[in-house]
């Protein structure tokens, strides 16, 4: 299957309308672990570019730890790659633990694909920032909802799970547990005040 722009835009539309079918179309590309890793790195770089553009258009007054992440584009790209890669590893490990059949390459591909779809929404948000700033907040809220919906469906498709509700609850549990672990590490290892 050729990776043409029309094909990718059609797959993105399908992923939003019928997420499991969109995920299956992307998984059917059968990308290797290396190709999936390169795709994830590309999404980290493009995400960083959009974050920098957004920050130039509307600078944020952030907490020191967030400001440190935005200090250099390279650091932000590495951070995004690590976060997305860690999410893919967790999707693979927890999914397998729960009886799923997905592999790491598939998890990496779907995390990268999810980020690609969210980047399209970020383009819309950037245009709204320039033309209709009042819509930036609602678009952001829609993005959070879309993220949860797509992630749930993508994980279910990757691991052949039937219950979206159970998948969603498992994602929430892993997210809360991971957030708690990161908070503990930040407090004890780096003395960060939360």
Description of the structure:
The protein has helices spanning about 5-15, 20-25, 35-55, 65-70, 75-95, 105-130, 135-160, 165-190. With about 190 residues, the chain is mostly helical. The chain has one domain (about 5-160). It is globular. About 25% of the residues are buried. The model has no long low-confidence stretch (mean pLDDT about 90).
Helix and strand arrangement:
Blueprint: H1 5-17, H2 19-27, H3 33-57, H4 64-69, H5 73-97, H6 104-131, H7 136-159, H8 164-190
Helix pairs in contact: 1-2, 2-7, 3-5, 3-6, 5-6, 6-7, 7-8
Described by strand count, sense and barrel closure, the largest sheet is: none
Oligomeric state as shown: single chain
The overall average pLDDT, rounded, is 89
Into which percent range does the helicity of residues fall? over 70%
Low-confidence stretches: none
Number of strands: 0
Q: How much beta, percentage-wise? A: under 5%
What is this entry, summarized?
With 194 residues, the protein is mostly helical. The chain contains eight helices and no strands.
Annotation keywords:
single chain; 194 residues; mainly alpha; globular
